[in-house]
Automatic annotation (TrEMBL):
Cited Pfam families: HGLS
Protein family per UniProt: Belongs to the 2-oxoadipate dioxygenase/decarboxylase family.
Descriptive protein name: 2-oxoadipate dioxygenase/decarboxylase
Naturally occurring in which organism (per UniProt): Streptomyces endocoffeicus
Cofactor(s) the protein needs: Fe(2+)
EC assignment: 1.13.11.93
Transmembrane domains' residue ranges: none
Keywords of this entry: Dioxygenase, Iron, Oxidoreductase
Length: 463
């Protein structure tokens, strides 16, 4: 009997989720179509260079999604479901601090971690968890109501979780079980038709629209799915030309003449969708909620800790200059800052240790009898090795906060006189019973493995 391996389950899940979301949110389909057109045009214009950061088949199929849950228990269940798909928690993002308005969540991203698995299907899901214990957002009374509400709901049917555990243990599922698993998993992220308790939802909405979206309903849903595009500036123009109103910026690094690094993202605002609402007298009326939106992203080279520190520092400089020149374009300011303070070529990023690469022996360097130098910079400069960029597979907290924020209707409330509850990657690991991995360590491992290999080939090791 045929079976589906974990990566096949992941690819099938991503494809079905995309199909479901396209039916529920038609503007998403437009975004996917325009992304595909842009990618085809870029490929035609730039040829092989366009696929330096991922094959066209990977990029065309590539999506990330976002979900939001209420408790460590629910997050632990999410980890079981995504674990079955070969997706592991990577990175810790604290969005309570990253935004001017209230976003009471901490997050991680579930994704494949091995190069081979990423190449097969890189599907990832940005997953946020509400923080009811944070007194800056919730007072004691609301916290206990919210926790009781969350404890009483069931997001994932036991059958789904049992199938997930089986797929993890056996690393595959037989056809029939796979079908059932995929059906239940996609169903768990559909928008529920169950009427929303209007006054409870509004109580939470006064704190934060995100709190209401998570804790105001008895189910969860995918709130966006994001295709990957090779030229996000061009995509932004084409979507605007089609009359789709995008948020006013592209988050992340500016458009500049140097290599693409990290992640650039933009989105269109959540659309009002009809939802049944239960009123305090028990009646059901029709209302509307804005919870689901569309986002698109362009991915660049992963930065090392030093490179990332530089990125964060440049963001600060751009903020400062933008606040001094409110009439100037932030994009122009950012471009100038970047061109001044960041190396403009891959070669320099590599030599300065600012970005991650895999290193490969240059196949056609003539054997001139000389000994190769030992440093990576010299090996590159003298043409002994070439560097292939490692693509950034993760997220950026400030961009994520920007994406959340652009979809909030009100600023919400946050009491800054209170001390926030401390959460970090260790806390999250303990809460979900599995390690939250460090993205830098994953990229470094990949880079180091290639360096060890090339050193061996060039006879630079003792062996
Ligand atoms: C998640 C927002 C963050 C991204 O791409 O940075 C995100 C959410 O709205 O739940 O998806
Ligand atoms: Ni996103």
């Amino acid at each position: 009997m045929s079976t589906l391996s974990q990566w096949q389950l992941r690819a099938a899940f991503a494809a079905r989720l995309s199909e479901m979301y396209g039916q529920e949110v038609p503007a998403y389909t437009t975004l996917v179509d325009v992304s595909r057109e842009v990618n085809e045009d870029v490929l035609r214009a730039r040829g092989a260079d366009a696929t330096r950061l991922g094959s066209i088949s990977r990029v065309t199929a590539e999506r990330h999604g976002a979900i939001r849950v209420g408790t460590p228990r629910e997050l632990g269940q999410v980890a079981r479901i995504f674990g079955a798909l070969g997706m592991h928690p990577v990175g810790f993002y604290d969005l309570r601090e990253a935004a001017a308005s209230a976003v009471p969540v901490v997050s991680t991203a579930f994704r494949p971690v091995d190069g081979e698995e990423l190449a097969r299907n890189p599907f990832r899901v940005f997953t946020s968890m509400l923080t009811p214990a944070d007194p800056r957002f919730f007072d004691a009374e609301l916290r206990s109501r919210l926790e009781a509400f969350l404890a009483d709901r069931e997001l994932f049917p036991p059958e789904l979780l049992a199938l997930a555990d089986r797929a993890t243990a056996e690393r595959e599922l037989p056809q029939e079980e796979a079908e059932r698993f995929l059906h239940l998993a996609v169903g768990a992220f559909e928008l529920s038709a169950e009427p929303v308790d209007k006054s409870w939802y509004e109580t939470l909405e006064r704190i934060s629209a995100v709190a209401a979206d998570i804790g105001g309903v008895r189910s969860t849903h995918i709130n966006h799915l994001t295709p990957r595009v090779l030229d996000i500036d061009e995509l932004y123009r084409r979507m605007t030309d089609r009359g789709i109103e995008m948020i006013d910026t592209i988050q992340g690094p500016p458009a500049w003449q140097g290599p693409d690094v990290l992640l650039r993202q933009t989105s269109f605002r959540a659309l009002a969708e009809p939802r049944a609402m239960r009123t305090p007298d028990g009646g059901v009326i029709s209302g509307a909620l804005r919870v689901r939106f569309g986002e698109v992203e362009a991915r660049g080279i992963a930065l090392t800790r030093e490179g990332r520190a530089r990125y964060d520092e440049l963001l600060g400089r751009v903020d400062e200059q933008a606040s001094q020149n409110p009439s100037a374009s932030r994009g122009e300011i950012a471009r100038a800052v970047w061109e001044r303070h960041l190396p403009g070529s891959e070669q320099e990023l590599a030599a300065k240790g600012l970005a991650y690469f895999t290193y490969h022996r240059h196949p056609d360097r003539p054997r001139d009898g000389g000994r190769p130098p030992t440093g990576v910079g010299e090996l590159l400069r003298q043409g002994w090795v070439r560097a292939e960029p490692i693509v950034y597979e993760d997220f950026l907290p400030r961009s994520a906060a920007g994406i959340f924020q652009s979809n909030l209707s009100g600023a919400g409330t946050r009491h800054c006189d209170q001390q926030g509850t401390a959460y970090d990657a260790d806390w999250l690991s303990g809460a979900i019973g599995r390690d939250v991995l460090d993205p830098f360590a994953l990229y470094a491992r990949q880079q180091n493995a290639s360096l060890a290999h090339v050193a061996h080939e060039l006879g630079l090791t003792g062996t």
